[in-house]
Amino acid sequence: MDAALRDLAQEWWDGMMARNPTVATRLGDHRFDDAIEDPSPAGLAHERAFAVDVAERARAIPVADLDEAERVTHALLLDSCQQQIESVDSDEIQLASDGFTGYPVSLLRSTAQLRAPDEASAEAQLERLGKLPGALDAVVAQWQVGADR
Predict the structure, then answer these.
(1) pLDDT tens, residue by residue, 10-22
(2) 32: which of 10, 62, 102, 121 lies 20 to 30 Å off by Cα?
(3) pTM: predicted TM-score of the whole model, two decimal places
(4) DSSP code string of 32-69
């Protein structure tokens, strides 16, 4: 695989796992077990900036030099970046306050899927729980902004 594309795709994956640590844990990536998502305006701005940066660097990769599988990877990477940008730009978090799609519900749904392969992971996930009130406060603040519009 093209080294630049491979490295950029890996950076995107690692960045998305770091920004979505509960998802990372659910998928078996325990590097971020002690972290929680940052749904604050600053956290979302950081997510958007990361997606814009990765998309710009992906566009700089000469597609003509890629084989068919690499072109698919390239297209999927750009699409993932665009989806992230659109999610932030649409203020999606301000609208997802229902009992089916909101952040608190996603946390509840994922609880049964979280596993701790060892004591360190279990301790880290307990540390994450201590950060939950702050994340939920940030979500409620986002909902209030959406309701005030």
Answers:
(1) 999 999 999 999 9
(2) 102
(3) 0.90
(4) GTT-----SHHHHHHHHHHHHHHHHHHHTS-GGGS-HH
Half-sphere exposure of 27 (CA within 13 A, CB side): 13
35-67 pLDDT tens trace: 999 999 999 999 999 999 999 999 999 999 999
Which pLDDT tens digit goes with each residue over 65-79? 999 999 999 999 999
User: Please, is 121 exposed, middle or buried when counting C-beta atoms within 10 Å of its C-beta (0-12, 13-18, 19+)?
Assistant: middle
CA distance 133 to 136: 5
CA-based nearest residue to 60, from 47, 48, 77: 77
Q: Please count the residues of the chain.
A: 149
Q: Are 29 and 17 in contact (CB under 8 A)?
A: yes
Instruction: Give Rg (Cα) of the chain.
Output: 17
